[in-house]
């Protein structure tokens, strides 16, 4: 088996079996893997066990090796490997197996093809990518293609919450020279991803009876005034632009406070998140906000949920390789873009440690 050149590899695109690919995606949807968001999995629908086993079964049948690792109770990663023939660069296709919940989504766990699209929980984000990775393995096997370097397929858990699967996978160091993460990007090449940091803003007031509000301090009204300051903060962020990702952003997502309509509330809690650009630190955000918000009886705690931002180093070989692959595959938009959400690409997520690179 000779190692093919890139043009020969491009011909593999013509061998993609769309019916098989669709069937694979429907089967992945029908193997539920709802993220329990920090809790222990409660029942068969939660956790990634079934999808990890599915990946293992499909890939070992094609001659790959595959390890399924229970990195936390009921939470799994799958890592499969097709050894390279001549010590070339290794490449990993990585994708998260978990999905968000199915509440309020009829037929969430039934892969349905409608108007040429597959519907079901996780169809797009991101079981479609897992299905594509399996189709790559099928085509390589059918054509008896041997690659120069190792090809790995990683199914990881917990991307939708704390990226614990990627952290576990990366804990013992990089396993590939580069990683492609197939998050949904409308088929554009994304060479950078924003990070995330979430915070609590607590506003203190003085409780009193609602008939004499002048004797208290209404924490909700104070919070309402502060929220206007978030718009000022966004305007300062708009001036801080990354060439691929655009500006950093801030979002107020939750506001809680008060107990009864006839009580002046003594506390109001605001949860907000900040999308970070590469190079920004979660520790800087409370300082920046303090400079914009009016002074008062409020405080911002440390970030309680963080995901690092990431960008592929300028001039990295993977960017050019992906552009070539996009050209050979007929992808119309081959310009690099930024991914506005966070993902397993971040080095702090440990997805594939510091040598790893995301480009999807
Ligand atoms: Zn995703």
Model description:
Keywords: Hydrolase, Metal-binding, Zinc. It comes from Microbispora siamensis. The chain is built from eight helices and 19 strands. It is α+β, with helices and mostly antiparallel strands and 360 residues long. It has two domains: 6-193 and 310-349, Zn peptidases (Aminopeptidase, 3-Layer(aba) Sandwich), CATH 3.40.630.10; 195-307, Alpha-Beta Plaits. The strands form six sheets. It has a five-stranded mixed sheet, sandwiched between helices. Strands 9, 13, 15, 16 and 17 form a five-stranded antiparallel sheet that branches. A hairpin with a 2-residue loop joins strand 1 (65-72) and strand 2 (75-82). 39% of the residues are buried. Residues 96, 125-126, 159, 183 line the site of zinc ion.
Strand order of the largest sheet: 1-2-6-3-7
What's the assembly state of these chains?
Answer: single chain
Percent of residues in helices comes to: 25-40%
CATH class of the largest domain: Alpha Beta
> Which topology of the largest domain does CATH recognise?
Aminopeptidase
Order of helices and strands: HHHEEEEEHEHEEEEHEEEEEHEEEHE
Average pLDDT reading: 92
The structural class is alpha+beta
Bound small-molecule species:
zinc ion
Task: Specify the number of helices.
Answer: 8
Region (Disordered): 332-360
Keywords: Hydrolase, Metal-binding, Zinc
Organism: Microbispora siamensis
Cofactor: Zn(2+)
């Amino acid at each position: 088996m000779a190692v093919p050149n890139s043009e020969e590899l491009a011909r593999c695109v013509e061998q993609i079996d769309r019916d098989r690919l669709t069937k694979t995606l429907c089967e992945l949807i029908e193997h539920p893997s709802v993220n329990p968001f920090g809790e222990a999995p409660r029942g068969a629908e939660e956790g990634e066990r079934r999808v990890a086993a599915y990946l293992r079964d499909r890939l070992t049948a094609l001659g790959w090796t595959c390890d399924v690792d229970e990195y936390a109770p009921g939470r799994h990663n799958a890592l499969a490997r097709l050894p390279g023939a001549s010590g070339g660069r290794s490449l990993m296709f990585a994708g998260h197996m978990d999905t968000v919940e199915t509440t309020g989504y009829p037929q969430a766990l039934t892969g349905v093809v409608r108007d040429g699209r597959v519907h079901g929980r996780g169809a797009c984000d991101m079981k479609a990518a897992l299905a594509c990775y399996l189709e790559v393995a099928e085509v390589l096997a059918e054509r008896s293609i041997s690659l120069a370097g190792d090809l790995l397929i990683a199914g990881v858990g917990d991307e939708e919450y704390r990226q614990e699967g990627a952290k576990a996978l990366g804990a013992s160091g990089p396993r590939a020279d580069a990683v492609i993460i197939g998050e949904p990007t409308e088929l554009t090449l994304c060479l950078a991803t924003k990070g995330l940091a979430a915070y609590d803003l607590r506003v203190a007031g003085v409780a009193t009876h609602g008939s004499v509000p002048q004797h208290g301090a209404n924490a909700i009204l104070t919070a309402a005034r502060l929220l206007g300051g978030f718009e000022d903060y966004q305007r300062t962020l708009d001036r801080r632009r990354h060439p691929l990702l655009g500006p950093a952003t801030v979002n107020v997502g939750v506001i809680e406070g008060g107990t009864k309509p006839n009580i002046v509330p003594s506390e109001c809690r605001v949860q907000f998140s900040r999308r970070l650009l590469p190079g920004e630190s979660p520790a800087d955000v409370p300082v920046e906000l303090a400079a914009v918000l009016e002074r008062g009886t409020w405080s911002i705690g440390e970030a309680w949920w963080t995901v690092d931002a990431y960008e592929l180093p300028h001039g990295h070989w993977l960017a050019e390789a992906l552009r070539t692959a996009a050209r050979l595959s007929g992808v119309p938009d081959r310009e690099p873009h930024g991914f506005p959400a966070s993902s397993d690409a971040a080095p702090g997520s440990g997805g594939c440690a510091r040598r790893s690179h995301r480009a999807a």
